[in-house]
Amino acid sequence: MTFQSLIHMTILGIIVALPATKSFAASDETASPNIILLMSDDQGWGDVGFNGNDVVKTPHLDAMAVGGVRFDRFYAAAPLCSPTRGSCLTGRYPFRFGILAAHTGGMRVGEITIAEMLKKQGYATGFFGKWHIGWVKPDEVGTRGFYSPPSHHGFDEYFATTSAVPTWNPTITPDDWNSWGGEPSGPWKGGFPYVHNGHEAKENLSGDDSRIIMDRVIPFVEANQAQPFLATVWFHAPHEPVVAGDEFKKLYPKAGTTRKNYYGCITAMDQQIGRLRTKLRELGIEKNTVIFFCSDNGPSDGLTQKGVASAGPFKGHKHTMYEGGVMVPACAEWPGKIPAGTSTDVRCSTVDFLPTVASIVGNSMVRKASRPIDGIDLMPVICGEAGKPDRSLFFGYRRLHNGIDGKAIISGDWKLLQEAKKDGRMRLFDLAKDPFEKIDLSKTLPDQVEILREQLAELEASCQRSRDGADYRY
């Protein structure tokens, strides 16, 4: 599919409650399937081959999309990192659990995560990569956030950083880096940003960061091949500082330095995803393993403005409420369960992971939940068993000290957004006719604005109640 072909696509609606369909839970042949959740960092919708990019090399992700399902309209719950990550684990909007932006909180132990749900069903649970929903070191005192490592949220094994690291030699600040994190050529955030099961990791930390992460994932998979497991793998690539090794930069001889690093970093991550898929096949467990992949938000502001990173034909980038800020590349693979060559333009979201996994493993948590769960089971959508979706999706992030209060709602084909900047104005778009958000209809259709504004206010109020403690026992 090329970027140009998207112009002719019709965007479908969304679901709040699916009609009764056949069950996609584990059968005798796929008892307690393994779950792998892969996520890249700041990778734009247009930064993969399966979305039409014919420059960046992502053969393994492309193979995943061909071998399973490609999501053409998949949304992150926020246009930046931490809120989206929390939504992946809880099935809830970030405004419910109180992580409203990066470095502005930590995951509350009162939240129920995918890992906690699966652990109760006998799953081995592992987390690998960028956590960013709480500090991973108990003495990591800062002005924002708090200590809340993966082990507090259902993960037996973890190899994690609190936040971003260079994508090559993650313990060392790149020579040409002149921003946060460390002095050029000096140690990155103290020099040992990874924590492995409560202890600062100090070995095998040189070279490609995606490979460093996968070097911990593979042994976890091998050790748990005889029992069901959850592996949550959140890469740092291609978040800045984005650096690629020479072998990957050489794949892009005609590109400039910035592009060599960006494209090469993505290809290096893709290679490690291929390594994981190969290992599953070597162990003979690929048919009992479902893999989901997505990015956490749109592409980097600066790299998009330089024409390096890409949201495809969509408007916006990271930190914006436009489609390019929240719509991300996504696919899933489950041989024998997800028909190969499937694609869907139903609007799906990171809040859908928990309900989908619950359905797959036969867990009734979502149906019996006393707290709001914002996501839906995607398996009927993926397998074409669902009717037309009919739900609203809510996005947002907030840093009120800078006057930043970005939010958006999609209801049917209508999208109302408030720009994520001081005095951000409301804008209205008809995504069916205008998927690239070129025509603001807010002044010509004030009644429609008011309808969506009321829906947005109701969602915000519900999230506020959750955030203030309505969903937790005291």
UniProtKB/TrEMBL annotation:
Instruction: Look up the signal peptide feature and give its range.
Output: 1-25
- Keyword Signal on this protein? yes
Mind telling me which InterPro entries this protein's record contains? Alkaline_phosphatase_core_sf, Sulfatase, Sulfatase_N
Q: What class of enzyme is it?
A: hydrolase
Cite the Gene3D superfamilies for this sequence.
3.30.1120.10, Alkaline Phosphatase, subunit A
Query: A Pfam family name for this chain?
Result: Sulfatase
Protein's recorded name:
Arylsulfatase
Q: Which gene encodes it?
A: atsA_77
